[in-house]
Amino acid sequence: MTKVEAIIQTSKLEPVKNALHDIGVEGMTVTEVRGHGRQKGHTEVYRGREYTVDLIPKIKIEMVLADDMVDKVTQSIISTAQSGKIGDGKIFLSRVDEAIRIRNDQRGEGAL
Amino acid sequence: MKTLLMRLLLGLLLFLSCTPGLLAFVAPAAHSPDDINVRISKLEQQTADAKSSADNAWMLTSAALVLLMTGPGLALFYGGLVRKKNVLATMMQSFAMMALITVLWALFGYSLAFGAGNSFIGNLHHLFLWGVGSQPDLAYSATIPQQTFMIYQLMFAIITPALITGAFAERMKFSAMVLFMILWSILVYDPMAHMVWGKGGLLNASLGGYFPTLDFAGGTVVHVTSGVSALVCAIYLGRRLGYPHDSMPPHSVVLSFVGASLLWVGWFGFNAGSALGSGSLATSAFVATHFAAAAAVIGWGGMEWVKNGRPSVLGAISGAVAGLVAITPAAGFVGPMPALLIGLLAGAFCYYMVAKVKARFGYDDSLDAFGVHGAGGTLGALLTGVFASSSVNPIFKDAQGNPLPSGVLQGNVHQLFNQFVGVAIAWALAAVGTLVILKIVDATVGLRVSEEHEIQGLDLSQHGEEGYYWEVST
Prior knowledge:
With about 110 residues, chain A is an alpha+beta fold. Chain A has helices at about 15-20, 70-80; strands at about 1-10, 30-35, 40-45, 50-55, 55-65, 90-95, 100, 105.
């Protein structure tokens, strides 16, 4: 099992969600996050005082997948969320030892 | 010696005559007819002053209430309906009207709308508010200073373009909006206001219009013009990015709820204030306004309940606005029962326009400015011709001053034709005027924000601010 964490532009959530649904992803957890990589922030001015906003709103999608799904999912995210500009985000993959369904204590990939 | 005594007596008498109370005590029943006439005319003046003060108090209150409709009322109503990245920009569009239209009105707008002029537009006699002071303009309102009439009418000129902003929400450049609204106010609002309410206007019912159209508080002038212009804007600008596939629910129905409730309250100034005095006509318009709003909540909410199995809060408040729109031309002409009926019909009809017709044609009238104001205003203007009653407001009189029938139900079938003409002219002027203005603005500053700015949101891209600044609590 692999955990996919994708940090993407907020405006790409809808298209990515739809694309993942189309290739059979059944569950995901989405969080509104703030952060930055190499992308510069912007400044806002309130009554003449400048504020630098360098933590930019992003969307984090988390999914735990059976290993044979991972390539399909990452490709789908890349092709949907890519604009080619700085700030498109990142995908992180990591191993997951166990998954447990709380309802019936089911274990392993069947619990996903 | 004798003459001196005579002089003293005469002097005493003269002194006493200056103090009538004392004179009455000393020498009762010593009034000359002239004296009584002076006192009567003085009393008449005082009575007129008292009436003028009473009317003026209500009219200034009404003017303030109508301004309350734009900011905060409409600004909150629309602000809640957009996505949160556009909340400030949307509120700013309404607020900008409070500044922009005010200046235009002071310089020449009032003159173009309410100067004598011809059938279509006023003249320039009141340029820079020349001659608009404490004296009443007898043709418009004999009991209040013309300056009160001017500031009251200004509040209508402010909210009308603000209503249009609902159609192009979330995608128009601020600079384009400013230019559009300046031109729209001059080319569409001022002529329409003059035609319906101005001296000698083509549609004026009380000042000798060719097609006397009954429009008490602006069904055609405010709601049909803004609603139809909104539709043209929505179609010309095109849909928002992602519409209709992406869901774009209101970011805060709570804000919209507060806004709609303020609109309801402000509307008493809008409609009851249009009596231009504080007499019984204002009461009748006040009652009709409230009844129509209430019935329209039931109309829209009821439709939702039947169709979707439950009534929504957004439906209830949208219904109230629809009812207020529809009763606007009719308030001051119809009784309480027709007001209930007009509201009920408007609630159901506007629900149908917004939920069904818009989806069928696919235009992105983002906040339903056409579905509510265009549709509700048209319905209300036509129904005014049906339900107007001379017992509420004897607007038409014969040569002897006896009231003539007002609406179809009283036997004046022709009035429905006049209402239709008024509505048709409002539709035509709004559609053509708006299209021409959009072309001009498109060719000069460009209408839409860039795709990048639209995704980023108008708050940041147009104003460099955020409605809800994110900070870590420390």
